[in-house]
Amino acid sequence: MNSEIRAKFRVDRSDFQLDVDLTLPGRGVTALFGHSGSGKTTCLRAMAGLERAREGYFSIGDEVWQDESKGHFVPPHQRALGVVFQEASLFPHLSVRGNMEFGQKRASTAAMCFELPEVAELLGIGHLLERNPTQLSGGERQRVAIARALLAAPKILLMDEPLAALDLKRKLEILPYLERLHRELAIPIIYVSHSPDEVARLADHLVLLDEGKVVASGPLKDVLSRIDLPAAFADDAGVVIEAEIVAHEADDLTRLEFSGGSIFVSRRQEPVGTWRRCRIHARDVSLALVPQTQSSILNCVSAMVVDLAPTNTPGHVLVKLDVAGEPLLARITRRSAERLNIRPGLALRAQIKAVALLA
Amino acid sequence: MESADLAAVWLTLKLATVVTLLLLVIGTPIAWWLARTRSAFKGVIGAIVALPLVLPPTVIGFYMLVVMGPNGPVGQFTQSLGLGLLPFTFPGLVIASVFYSLPFVVQPIQNAFEAIGDRPLEVAATLRASPWDTFWSVAVPLAKPGFLSGAILGFAHTIGEFGIVLMIGGNIPDKTRVVSVQIYDHVEALEYTQAHWLSGGMVLFSFLVLLGLYTFNPARRKAL
User: Are residues A87 and B127, on separate chains, in Cβ contact within 8 Å?
Assistant: First the structure.
């Protein structure tokens, strides 16, 4: 079944323009990433139909929810979608169960893919059903809001910075549930965020927005390893790799393996065999022409230079590397690049100073 | 208390009840429209609704008399329907009171609707609730304190009116002679004891209503 998402919106306001034309996968998590004012929330609201772009087209699979060229616009309450807002926005006059049943009662039963107990279990809120929303913590409220959206039998789940209003502790409490949704849901999730870590952890597909325009759209790894992105994104440049925990070693280090080799991190709790996403910042990668035996840096992999590009950090360049098929970025000074004569095709060693495991 | 006084009390309660119910029916859509609209007419409609707050009741009563009288548009309309004329009848009094107490019902409800904000309504829409459904299942429950205030204020204000009753209702026992008019009659006739009974009752009633309003009207729960 074709479940591809087509989203094309033009919004013209005096203080803000949005002009996007996106084709997104009908599965997995697509992150809309950008700084505030980049138009990511407007784009999400247009998808939900909460805002009507005067020029717009939105379809999911064979269902066209908006086609302004034909004057076609399905109002939000007739769209099979779920929306999770930044604040949980639970109805204060209803219990947790009442909130969850609100959409369930109104959704078409034929499309129902979940039962309430199942969703409550998935999000760990089964013990809260009879409570009043005021008695919940911020993290619990947001989980109820997600459950409420899922029970309305959506064909797509739209999330507008669902973690932004929460403190770090609550974020860490919810992220595992989001990862679970990612694994267990067959429906696509559009996830708006300005947090690079959340995106690196959850997204499969990444759309970068800047000043209302699409800067890049593609599979997460491809977009993250691009070195031609505008300055606004270059500071956080870095890639995500998937690695498997293969050993917990005696000196309190855990060895992870990815296609390009081994990397070591401080001892982890996860059992051997667990796969984890790791984020490696370009600023944490340095380059050497010959293997360094006299260096304190433990994580060293063989790499091939693919390309170089200037960054907005004065005197620095971004180097795109290929590590046995996995892309890696390094940010080094232009002086070093010239001294070492770094050029496409050059084989060298990449030293990784820090690896962030995303979990 | 003599039977004329009891009749006046009964008539007053009947008037206030009918007027309050009508005001909830008429005032709610007006309040909703005023709370949600971005129309340029919002100011005009809002000002018309609020007029009774500042105008002397005699002015409103005078114009009502003119409009509903034999030469007024409403008067000619009711006559053509064979209903006769409204002034100096109970229905006439109801219509005048509805207009006179309108802002006391519309404004608390409007404020309550405005306090809800867009978000709960958007959430309801994304959960498949049509606008009509959202109004009843989200907006009205969330605005409950506003409805309560509006109903109490509308009821109490209708009971307390005098000038407009005198202008449009006259002083017809069992038809338009409400408590406030009855008190006036007693005072004119120097029947201070009876005037005391009714006036004291009004003071006590009004105090209890306001006490209830200030004590039991819970601080509005914020949307979470």
Answer: no
